[in-house]
């Protein structure tokens, strides 16, 4: 059990600055997910933590030890790879026992620990098989087993579920969460899938272009993204963005966008007042777009044309044409909208997000 | 539509007119025979016929210009009492085993080095193949000069370095000659091992090395527990080919020493040539070269069985 500390971590590949001054504290027993699009530096960060990639500058601490110069084997970590990386010529048992054998663990102890891990993961019946005789999900379990028999200080996961089919991925995600609750070991998990990040992480680290954009609990990222990138990355379907200009009219603050204009209530206006006369970006989540009935104030409503209707069962996604831009709304399945319909939508001002048009930081 | 209609309509669909030859080729058995024919002719003419003729020669007393009569296994029993033949057998085994061990070790080492990332990797990989590309006779002549007692560049270098004070007679000294011949064979054979094993290494997922490193395996353990077992099937095939070639090697020894001095480098192939072509005793030469056959057969069968076992597991 240990905390992990990344201090001013940098990685250069020749001219490419892949990881830029990453500072992060991962608390003991915490499950932290690094998420971002491909090439954002999340895997490189994890590999530097594992010792598989040299550190260009900065420090990695596991527990209270600076591990920069330690070989992977001396860092007391275990890693689960995207392609499982099981030894194809060894049985499941030997795959799981290998790390313990290398560490000269007592034979009977190895047997006990492998058995224990196999019981947890439900792979007792496959111990004598070779990896290629297993399905993808079973291989993934073996890869997990190989990590947990070691009783490491930190678990590292490099997109471990991305090779599984969608259904199995959801199932394994739940099992991973249970496993972490049971083992209570610090875990760092890399994924490009924001749903995985939101469901698994105690805290989520959003990275983009080698830079940490925001660190926070899943709902914090969802409700209060610090910039447009995080706002757009977290949440599915993604947040709608519309460029707008703030204008003072009759003592009230208005946001004028293509296709709609908003009259902002006093509490929101107070926050945005310094941006009067300037360009901003309005962000609204698909689930915050409501089909308006008469009860909504007209200043928060706008009309839109339905272009595509996607019925998902529990919700309906409407692709809308609003002025110059398209937006997606997630509405109740009871709404009987069809292509070409004109609908009136209402915004909840406290659910709106505003970003500086140039810096894209949240206002 | 009634069944009878369908049948009667069918009659109007004109069957294409086909010649007898076309119809014959429509039959898979005939087509297979026709397609196999060129291969059968080539193999029969250039492999089966010489082999059968060789077997026939070995049980006659034919010499150049004399057809010969059947003599049973007389040529083979004579070989058992031929001291030069026995020396050749021994030399061939030493030559094959020692050269193969060194070629495998050096080739594997080179393959592991070439499998790393470094500047000029592509160029180096191509360069390594050079000994393999140059015709053996040409490169062997170059080696012959390097081993020449008077003009040897090796001797000159060793002398200038102060390591020796008199010339080493590489090919003239019976105890050194076999070693020299083996050195050239190793030099020529290493690229084949290196490139083949490199191809094998590249099929091994590099993540396995990383997983093993995290699992606590040191570099040597990673090689022994992960790389080597996964490379084994490829290694066995490479060794199989190499052993067959080395066992039946001819050109290299023929150019360097011609089997001498005093038969110190005499191998199966050179002795067979010397007896059969050099002396004109066709039947005895055939017997010598045929004597290789059982040894090679055993080696091939054992290795193929082993490869199959490795692949099944």
Share of residues in helices of chain B: over 70%
Instruction: Extract low-pLDDT stretches of chain B.
Output: none
Uncertain segments of chain A: none
Number of strands of chain A: 20
Look at the structure and give the CATH class of the largest domain in chain B: Mainly Alpha
Instruction: Please identify the top-level CATH class of the largest domain in chain A.
Output: Alpha Beta
Account of the 3D structure:
The complex is a heterodimer of chains A (363) and B (313). Chain A is an alpha+beta fold and 363 residues long. Chain A has nine helices and 20 strands. Chain A has helices at 42-50, 92-102, 107-121, 136-148, 166-183, 194-200, 218-223, 228-233, 266-272, and strands at residues 4-13, 16-26, 31-35, 57-62, 65-66, 77-80, 154-158, 186-191, 203-208, 211-216, 240-249, 252-257, 260-264, 279-284, 290-291, 301-311, 316-322, 325-331, 342-346, 353-356. A six-stranded mixed beta sheet of chain A has the order 6-7-8-3-9-10, sandwiched between helices. Chain A has a five-stranded antiparallel beta sheet with strand order 13-12-11-14-20. Chain A has a five-stranded antiparallel beta sheet with strand order 15-19-16-17-18, with no helix packed on it. Chain A starts with a strand and ends in a 7-residue tail after the last strand. The model of chain A has no long low-confidence stretch (mean pLDDT 90). Chain B is an all-alpha fold. The model of chain B has no long low-confidence stretch (mean pLDDT 86). The chains are: A alpha+beta (363), B mainly alpha (313). Chain A binds chain B through residues 50-52, 71-73, 77-79, 81, 83, 85-89, 98-99, 102-103, 146, 150, and chain B through 205, 207-208, 210-218, 221, 225-226, 229-230, 313.
């Amino acid at each position: 059990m240990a905390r992990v500390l990344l201090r001013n971590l940098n990685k250069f590949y020749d001219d490419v600055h892949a990881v830029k001054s990453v500072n992060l504290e991962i608390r003991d027993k915490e499950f932290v997910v690094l998420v971002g699009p491909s090439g954002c530096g999340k895997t490189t960060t994890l590999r530097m933590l594992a010792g598989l990639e040299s550190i260009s500058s900065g420090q990695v601490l596991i527990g209270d030890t600076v591990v920069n110069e330690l070989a992977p084997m001396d860092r007391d970590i275990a890693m689960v790879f995207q392609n499982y990386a099981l030894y194809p010529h060894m049985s499941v048992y030997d795959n799981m026992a290998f790390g313990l054998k290398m560490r000269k663990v007592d034979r009977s102890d190895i047997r006990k620990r492998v058995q224990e891990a196999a019981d947890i993961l439900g792979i007792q019946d496959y111990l004598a098989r070779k990896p290629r005789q297993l399905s993808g999900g079973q291989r993934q379990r073996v890869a997990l087993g190989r990590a947990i028999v070691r009783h490491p200080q930190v678990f590292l996961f490099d997109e471990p579920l991305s090779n599984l089919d969608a259904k199995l991925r959801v199932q394994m995600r739940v099992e991973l969460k249970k496993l972490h609750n049971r083992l209570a070991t610090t875990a760092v998990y890399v994924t490009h899938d924001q749903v995985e990040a939101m469901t698994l992480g105690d805290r989520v680290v959003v990275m983009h272009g080698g830079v940490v954009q925001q660190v926070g609990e899943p709902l914090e990222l969802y409700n209060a993204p610090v910039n447009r990138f995080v706002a757009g990355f977290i949440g599915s379907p993604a947040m709608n963005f519309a460029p707008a200009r703030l204008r003072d009219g009759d003592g009230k603050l208005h946001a004028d966008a293509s296709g709609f204009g908003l009259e902002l209530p006093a509490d929101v206006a107070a926050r945005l007042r310094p941006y009067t006369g300037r360009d901003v970006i309005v962000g609204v989540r698909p689930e915050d777009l409501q089909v308006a009935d008469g009860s909504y104030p007209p200043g928060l409503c706008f009309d839109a044309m339905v272009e595509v209707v996607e019925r998902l069962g529990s919700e309906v996604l409407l692709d809308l044409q609003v002025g110059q831009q398209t937006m997606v709304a997630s509405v109740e399945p009871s709404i009987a909208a069809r292509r070409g319909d004109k609908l009136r939508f209402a915004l909840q001002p406290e659910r709106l997000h505003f970003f500086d048009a140039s810096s894209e930081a949240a206002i | 539509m009634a069944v009878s209609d369908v049948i009667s309509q069918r009659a109007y669909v004109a069957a294409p007119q086909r010649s007898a030859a076309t119809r014959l080729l429509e039959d898979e058995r005939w087509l297979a025979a026709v397609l196999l024919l060129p291969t059968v002719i080539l193999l029969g003419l250039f492999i089966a016929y010489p082999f059968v003729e060789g077997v026939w020669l070995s049980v006659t007393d034919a010499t150049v210009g004399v057809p010969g009569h059947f003599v049973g296994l007389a040529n083979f029993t004579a070989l058992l009492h031929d001291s030069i033949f026995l020396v050749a057998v021994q030399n061939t085994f030493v030559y094959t085993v020692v050269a193969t061990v060194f070629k495998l070790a050096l080739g594997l080492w080179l393959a592991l080095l070439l499998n790393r990332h470094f500047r000029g990797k592509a160029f180096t990989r191509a360069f390594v193949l050079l000994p393999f590309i140059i015709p053996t006779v040409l490169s062997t002549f170059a080696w012959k000069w390097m081993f020449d007692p008077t003009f040897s560049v090796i001797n000159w270098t060793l002398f200038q370095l102060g390591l020796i004070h008199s010339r080493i007679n590489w090919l003239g000294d019976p105890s050194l000659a076999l070693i020299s011949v083996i050195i050239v064979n190793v030099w020529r054979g290493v690229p084949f091992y290196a490139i083949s094993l490199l191809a094998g290494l590249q099929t091994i997922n590099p993540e396995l090395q990383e997983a093993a490193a995290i699992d606590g395996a040191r570099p040597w353990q990673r090689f022994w527990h992960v790389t080597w077992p996964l490379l084994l099937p490829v290694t066995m095939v490479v060794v199989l080919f190499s052993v067959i070639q080395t066992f039946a090697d001819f050109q290299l020894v023929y150019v360097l020493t011609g089997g001498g001095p005093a038969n110190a480098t005499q191998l199966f192939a050179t002795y067979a040539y010397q007896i059969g072509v050099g002396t004109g005793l066709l039947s005895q030469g055939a017997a010598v070269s045929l004597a290789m056959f059982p040894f090679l057969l055993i080696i091939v069968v054992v290795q193929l069985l082993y490869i199959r076992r490795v692949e099944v597991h």
